[in-house]
Design a protein that fits this description.
single chain; alpha/beta; Uracil-DNA Glycosylase, subunit E; six-stranded mixed beta sheet; 37% helix; 10% strand
């Protein structure tokens, strides 16, 4: 999948193997595998991944980016989170502009993309029908994200891409003994919520529904990642 996977610490590689082998949610297993068999016409010659998606990025990252779930013909096809779809195009272009990525595009798992001081994960690891996982599927997947955050011990900022990811991260932080304040602040683009483990920043998800309508623009997303860098004290240079 990732040409640099051998550089990942052993504990993250072990977690990767558990994630990829997971079959805990029958609805998601059926859907991700059916999509991989039937394919989209424009990708009919591609070998779809069709399995759960691991996290990707710098194991020493100070910034964790939490998304919703893999896209059926994006990560479920390419095998890498936010790779091969329009949401990923928008996201990685912003990460490149703000110094977290070495290139602005993500087309395949072996395209040379590298992240510095950033790590990308998801609340749910399998592509869901209609891009809508259920709360039960989110909670079943949560232990993976809990363990990932524990292993990423340099993380100081968590950027949540949308309200669903915010809910998942809230539960992960509570399990880590660093709950969100009560009452919980409402999700909003540009929000900042301080916890004992990390500062949570909010942005609208870079889905076409948001980017094509102008609800989320490149300057808006860039501003969130610039703020993440400021809060994390991350090194302001490209790999």
């Amino acid at each position: 999948m990732n040409a640099r996977r051998e550089l990942r610490p052993a504990a993250l590689r072990a977690l990767d193997r558990e994630i990829v082998d997971c079959r805990a949610c029958p609805r998601l297993v059926e859907w991700r595998e059916r999509v991989a068999r039937e394919k989209r016409a424009s990708f009919r010659d591609d070998d779809y991944w069709g399995r759960p998606i691991t996290g990707f990025g710098d194991p020493r990252a100070r910034v964790l980016i939490a998304g919703l779930a893999p896209a059926a013909h994006g990560a479920n096809r390419t095998g890498r989170v936010f790779t091969g779809d329009r949401s990923g195009d928008f996201l990685f272009a912003s990460l490149f502009r703000t110094g977290f990525a070495n290139q602005p595009t993500a087309t395949s798992a072996d395209d040379g993309l590298m992240l510095r001081d950033a790590y990308i994960s998801a609340a749910v690891r399998c592509a869901p029908p209609a891009n809508k996982p259920t709360p039960a599927e989110r909670d079943r997947c949560r232990p993976f994200l809990e363990r990932e955050l524990a292993l990423l011990d340099s993380v100081r900022v968590v950027v949540v891409l949308g309200a669903f990811a915010y809910e998942a991260i809230g539960r992960v932080l509570a399990a880590a003994g660093a709950p969100l304040p009560a009452p919980r602040p409402k999700f909003a683009h540009g929000m900042e919520v301080l916890t004992a483990r990390a500062t949570v920043l909010g942005t609208y998800h870079p889905s076409q529904q948001n980017t094509f309508t102008g609800r989320l623009t490149p300057p808006m997303l860039d501003a969130v990642f610039v703020r993440a860098r400021e809060l994390a004290g991350a090194v302001p240079s490209r790999p």
